[in-house]
Amino acid sequence: MDTLTLIGIAVALAMDAFAVALAAGLTLATVTYRHLFRFGFHFGLFQGMMPVLGWMAGVGLRHYMEAFSHWLAFVLLSLIGIKMLYDALTDDDEDAEPKDPTRGVSLVMLSIATSIDALAVGFSLALLGVSIWMPALVIGVTASVFTLGGMLLGQRIGTLWSSKVECAGGLLLIAIGLKILLENTLFK
């Protein structure tokens, strides 16, 4: 696989992570180095691991995963988006800091949801007979960089708007999940 193709794949896979990180940056009052590390590390790790898992699974499980992977991503992103909307709309204390999406179950669910496409890439690379280690590294590092950029941009936008941007973050996650679902069902 040539370098340009690999970079193109890595950037395409990192776009969902970027959008989710943007939404997370919008919801946090202040983005700290700790937030950046947790999100960047987990998104990069999951984006790098999923192609390896897909490659290892090979052709045998591909048919089964393709049938529902887009539904899984849609459900995970939508659940987190709905929870963010609920938290934003039911929060009576305007000065309270919004929930931290860079911790706990939310972090793991977001990491999985944004990296499911990378699993399919791993399957494809196995079919092509491509070694997985360099693509997995490039995909993981690219996702980390895009995640950091998305969080910082989201923080900047959130600071400028300083309104109930948690609603926008929740809606963005639901939209990303819906996009994944529609691309893999209606527009396939």
Automatic annotation (TrEMBL):
Pfam families for the chain: Mntp (PF02659)
Compartments, as annotated in UniProt: Cell membrane
Membrane topology of the entry: Multi-pass membrane protein
Keywords for this protein: Cell membrane, Ion transport, Manganese, Membrane, Transmembrane, Transmembrane helix, Transport
Major localization class: membrane
Family per record: Belongs to the MntP (TC 9.B.29) family.
Protein name: Putative manganese efflux pump MntP
Record lineage: Bacteria, Pseudomonadati, Thermodesulfobacteriota, Desulfuromonadia, Geobacterales
